[in-house]
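Quick start: read one record
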Amino acid sequence: MLIGQAPGKATHEAGIAWRDRSGDRLREWLGVSREQFYDARQIALVPTGFCYPGSSGQGDLPPRPECAPLWHPRILPLLMKVELRIYLGSYAFASHWAKQYPNLSAGVADYRSLLPASVILPHPSPRNGMWAASRPWFKGELLPALRERVKEVLAR
């Protein structure tokens, strides 16, 4: 299960989540094809916000704050065969992990203790390239471990 933020403008217009450069990068991080990614029997895509929140001069607005607290307790228990929960970006992090970690980077860095059940990732936006570049362990250690875990889960 992937818990992301809210649909962006491209998703809003296309009606398909992660159909952009961020989605391409995310699929690369996970080591999955487009077909696997969009197969609801294999991967559940659950946003933090369920509607496009609009945009500002700096990009998309954050997800509406009432969405995750209202809908996640109703939806997540229905996904009974989830073996791996992937929290993408600061909004997914804030809605599920902010009490355990001081910030997103600390949650991402703790991947060894979260896997095999969960992992926290930065948003796969190209804007976050500097974040990943300054943390060589992200590409060198975390992503290979994540790909291996995703492969294990999808093989079942």
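The two ends are 15 Å apart (CA to CA).
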